[in-house]
């Protein structure tokens, strides 16, 4: 279904675009180029859906070159063919998004450096543990005037604080990096069900607007927010809340309890984000990346599902075991994020301020039973959220 | 399950209560009475659960008389017995909360005036359409120093603006009225599953704290907020959002879409409340009465359920018909609230500012198909919510 939203012009580029809105106008050869070139770094499930969204827009919008290059980690399929060859032949990522046409203008490229070298708009959408390696390989290889956006949920939370993926990209590559997060389950967007997303940007509004144009479709509504850290932390921390919600489901405690736990989780997300980054805005949590993503992730999603199974088994089967059984090798973001958040909290002496976050981790590692999610996670608020 | 929350003292009245914290100390006979007397006006499903919560606390807390009087609209049961007689004999509301003991100190009273005459704490929890009649009957019959609290979700939204139930009570009876709202499904609280609630109060913090003490149990966590209108509007408007969520479920549109619609609904709740009452606080919407109640109501609840059936039938069977079939005579709050909100919006020229609220009404009355909930309800925000 593709409702006609008045506010999203489908083919009115002359009204909405002006040359200055493009991030830059000179390419590596010194030639003036008013059009932006987009490369998607990553080709998993969400990366493929992102490429599809983008490719439908670059065809329509004047300020983008049609071609969307997609870096694909090369694999040989059971048929003996290479994944990139199949994608380029039938315009479909048969391994990670089967049955969905990406668009003929999506070009799969197994060579990372080649894929990025001409692009001035870089979309990063790989598993977060690969990002540090990718960034190191890309030092000095991307255009100086390139703009990046990270769709990667999850981050490195270290003792001294979280290292945001957008910061990692910015620092390694010396370019500005925005983020796109939101209540978006890739497979639902792939079949064009309505959903929303939030672009978090640092200071340049015109860059944010260019990203919004690149991603928006009638069924995918993107809103820009000047709050990179807030948006990115939403995308990460919500997985911890989803683990808590899964415990409540597994204990069969009902909707009241689940709603209470989700609300407490949202408040801890806000408080944690604001303690780490005082610039984080309250209003960000009412965007798609905030409350809506918490809802989506706590209703569906693999973090919730495996946590439910964990609680049903009374914590007697480990997350590793359940993951292996239920997720065919995928890892749960929520369990590792809960551990990382716990490290930050304990390092800073904040454990008592975040009973839900800390209890999720203690349940995950077996120090507390799943039922502790209710017993421990609610206390009278000690933090002024507003 | 009754987790031990550190912050809710169960039997430490000497630490937490002082005589001045009681709303008043002189009864109708002119005698000093440091203890408050509580009457619950209403005895339906939620009223009975409220009486149970309260009765467990009045037994424990020094500042309340043990007895909790409950006004019961008298009915003759199939057995030929009167409902009040059965409640007083077996401490159970066999009609509206079967299987749950209310406590021996709950006294059912079929005489409204008698039930309220000695009470200085009045808990109103009737269907909202009865409140005007009840208020008229009680003029001059309640103690002048009484404090009221309304648990009634739903209100009269008239052309000139909404008439809040708390206002109705205050104006008719000349007493202060707080509200208690939240993500609480009566039957889940009855079996002592963990949930939360929010007390909205006008100015007297010590009154709010007395209400919090009266309702709080280890499984029912109550937080006071100085924002009567915000809390009360949350309780009402969330039912309109639940209708929208039900449409999405009926159209089988997935979790992304549902989360997006819930988020947009929450934003319209905030915007509507703040336009009507500029004193309404953003933070109220992060309390149990806000985001948590929206979640609970959109996950379960009868508004969602009937709206789902309505959409599944493509709007061809009316809400009246589906209500009659599915709810055994209960009425949907959401459909009538949507109509009342629509009247306010159209009277004030705000229809375009609230696409979700107005679309819900137009779908309910058959002017738009259920699928319009997505096509019409999202527009670029025109209202600054913060």
From TrEMBL, chains A, B:
<dbReference type="InterPro" id="IPR017751">
    <property type="entry name" value="G3P_DH_NAD-dep_euk"/>
</dbReference>
<keyword id="KW-0520">NAD</keyword>
<protein>
    <recommendedName>
        <fullName>Glycerol-3-phosphate dehydrogenase [NAD(+)]</fullName>
        <ecNumber>1.1.1.8</ecNumber>
    </recommendedName>
</protein>
<feature type="domain" description="Glycerol-3-phosphate dehydrogenase NAD-dependent N-terminal">
    <location>
        <begin position="38"/>
        <end position="205"/>
    </location>
</feature>
<dbReference type="Pfam" id="PF07479">
    <property type="entry name" value="NAD_Gly3P_dh_C"/>
</dbReference>
<feature type="compositionally biased region" description="Polar residues">
    <location>
        <begin position="15"/>
        <end position="30"/>
    </location>
</feature>
<dbReference type="InterPro" id="IPR006109">
    <property type="entry name" value="G3P_DH_NAD-dep_C"/>
</dbReference>
<feature type="region of interest" description="Disordered">
    <location>
        <begin position="1"/>
        <end position="30"/>
    </location>
</feature>
<keyword id="KW-0560">Oxidoreductase</keyword>
<dbReference type="InterPro" id="IPR013328">
    <property type="entry name" value="6PGD_dom2"/>
</dbReference>
<dbReference type="InterPro" id="IPR008927">
    <property type="entry name" value="6-PGluconate_DH-like_C_sf"/>
</dbReference>
<dbReference type="Pfam" id="PF01210">
    <property type="entry name" value="NAD_Gly3P_dh_N"/>
</dbReference>
<comment type="similarity">
    <text>Belongs to the NAD-dependent glycerol-3-phosphate dehydrogenase family.</text>
</comment>
<feature type="domain" description="Glycerol-3-phosphate dehydrogenase NAD-dependent C-terminal">
    <location>
        <begin position="227"/>
        <end position="375"/>
    </location>
</feature>
<dbReference type="InterPro" id="IPR006168">
    <property type="entry name" value="G3P_DH_NAD-dep"/>
</dbReference>
<dbReference type="InterPro" id="IPR011128">
    <property type="entry name" value="G3P_DH_NAD-dep_N"/>
</dbReference>
<dbReference type="InterPro" id="IPR036291">
    <property type="entry name" value="NAD(P)-bd_dom_sf"/>
</dbReference>
